[in-house]
Amino acid sequence: MSYRRSWSSLTIMILGLATFIPVAQAQRQDFEALGCYAATYGIVHTSPEVVIRSADAKGIMQSNHDSKFLENWTMHTVYVIKVVGGKASWNGLGKGMAPDGEFILGEFYGDSESGGSTWKIFYGTGKWKGIKGELKGKVIRTGKPIVEGTSQLCEKYAGWIELPK
Predict the structure, then answer these.
(1) 87 within 8 A of 116, measured Cβ to Cβ
(2) What are 111-164's pLDDT values in tens digits?
(3) Which residues have a Cβ under 8 Å from the Cβ of 114 and sit 6 or more positions away?
(4) How many CB atoms lie within 10 A of CB 63?
(5) Which 3 state secondary structure label does DSSP give 114?
(6) Which residues in the chain belong to E strands, given as ranges?
């Protein structure tokens, strides 16, 4: 009996102490932003059935949220676009740089059927170290290409980020 009582007392004591141990919780923040880009395309393959292009896009972000996350950040993305049967899909990687020079990295994918992209943020420097997040982007404006092999567009983003405390 005393063995069970000691075991119970020890369990209660450990659980009691565990409630006072600080636990690092992530700080989640929602945001909305607008990104406008100019992209240059390279042709990998063109046939009536399949088109494969590479793309290199650069742009700037404007925050549409009180948090001001992504305000005046510059962006650089590289990606591959595949068109089969008139349906496009793409995937790539991108870097967002804050005005202070710190940056985040993300990967993305999308397709013409959904009309948008999904980003997963996986890396950051400085105060963005340990960042995680996801955002959805949708093209809201395009312009007539001013030079062949380019495009100009703006996307609206909504998402969340988490930073470790």
Answers:
(1) no
(2) 999 889 999 999 999 999 999 999 999 999 999 999 999 999 999 999 999 998
(3) none
(4) 17
(5) coil
(6) 27-46, 50-63, 74-84, 87-97, 103-111, 116-124, 132-143, 150-163
Q: Which domains does the chain have, with CATH numbers?
A: 24-163 (2.40.350.10)
Note whether 59 and 38 are within 8 A (CB): yes
Single-letter amino acid, residue 21: I
What is the spatial distance between Cα 110 and Cα 91, in angstroms, rounded to a whole number? Answer: 6
Is 161 in contact with 31 (CB distance < 8 Å)? Answer: yes
Tell me which residue has tokens 């959805």.
136
Rounded to the nearest 10 degrees, how much is the dihedral formed by the CA atoms of 94, 98, 100, 101? 0
